[in-house]
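**User:**
Everyone, produce one record:

**Assistant:**
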Amino acid sequence: MTTNNDTIIAALLIERAGYVRRNLPARIKAVDAALAAHGHQRETAALDAAVERAVQPKARRRKP
């Protein structure tokens, strides 16, 4: 039987995986803080992204 805390940790880990895939370091750190608050220890990888973007920038058209 899982406890409510286990369910919250599982949801946070899924959320964190999505942020890692999208390379959103600030949100990853926020989820890591929430995981730590719930008693989950996690190794964090170093993130090198300087700019966080929620969406990809539009591609520019080439001039003919």
